[in-house]
From TrEMBL:
<keyword id="KW-1133">Transmembrane helix</keyword>
<feature type="transmembrane region" description="Helical">
    <location>
        <begin position="91"/>
        <end position="111"/>
    </location>
</feature>
<dbReference type="InterPro" id="IPR013130">
    <property type="entry name" value="Fe3_Rdtase_TM_dom"/>
</dbReference>
<feature type="transmembrane region" description="Helical">
    <location>
        <begin position="6"/>
        <end position="30"/>
    </location>
</feature>
<dbReference type="Pfam" id="PF01794">
    <property type="entry name" value="Ferric_reduct"/>
</dbReference>
<protein>
    <submittedName>
        <fullName>Ferric reductase</fullName>
    </submittedName>
</protein>
<keyword id="KW-0812">Transmembrane</keyword>
<feature type="transmembrane region" description="Helical">
    <location>
        <begin position="123"/>
        <end position="142"/>
    </location>
</feature>
<feature type="transmembrane region" description="Helical">
    <location>
        <begin position="148"/>
        <end position="169"/>
    </location>
</feature>
<feature type="domain" description="Ferric oxidoreductase">
    <location>
        <begin position="12"/>
        <end position="133"/>
    </location>
</feature>
<keyword id="KW-0472">Membrane</keyword>
<feature type="transmembrane region" description="Helical">
    <location>
        <begin position="51"/>
        <end position="71"/>
    </location>
</feature>
<dbReference type="GO" id="GO:0016020">
    <property type="term" value="C:membrane"/>
</dbReference>
């Protein structure tokens, strides 16, 4: 049973990183204010929401499977408060911080209609902190941390986020130049 939990934790962890990468890239693309990836804005927004739900589900399974895994030896406290775990406390703590931010993102998204768009948008900027924390956690935690295939997946995730940021900045710069706005 323990091997099954460990494989489940590994698989859902990697899948979570890929899904979080998709979510961040789509969120960046949607803020550009024009169609992206061959989809209209509403399509990008819908895929962003759906991928977000999938990511949260996979992160939840990842955390629960590690909680019950005897090798990781995580306590309930370790799942909420960063840097207290006995297993690789630094890297596990980064993952815990990412989960804490993800909880804040989900909570504020569920309360978006009560918070107002401005407050929600300010809080939603936490996604830009959540992704690098999850990325660093993936590179430093677990038995696959140094494996070539994980480094390849992580590299592809990094390239995707950097490409989305670059595209977004070039779109903003081009729009600023075209509109004559030099602020």
């Amino acid at each position: 049973m323990n091997d099954a939990l460990w494989y489940l934790a590994r698989g859902t962890g990697v899948t979570s990183l890929v899904l979080l990468t998709v979510v961040v890239a789509l969120g960046i693309a949607n803020r550009a204010g024009r169609p992206a990836f061959g989809l209209p804005r509403f399509g990008v927004a819908q895929v962003h929401r759906d991928a977000s739900l999938l990511a949260v589900g996979f992160v939840l399974v990842h955390v629960i499977s590690l909680f019950f895994d005897v090798y990781a030896q995580l306590e309930l406290f370790d799942l909420i408060v960063p840097f207290g775990a006995t297993y690789r406390p630094m890297w596990t703590g980064l993952g815990t911080l990412a989960v804490d931010l993800l909880i804040a993102l989900v909570g504020t998204s569920l309360l978006r209609h009560r918070l107002g768009l401005r407050a929600w948008r300010v809080t939603h900027w936490l996604a830009y902190a959540c992704w690098p924390l999850a990325f660093a956690h993936a590179l430093g935690s677990g038995s696959d941390a140094g494996a070539w295939w994980l480094r390849t997946v992580a590299g592809a995730c990094l390239v995707a986020v950097v490409a989305a940021v670059t595209w977004r900045l070039s779109t903003s710069a081009r729009a600023t130049v075209l509109s004559g706005d030099t602020r």
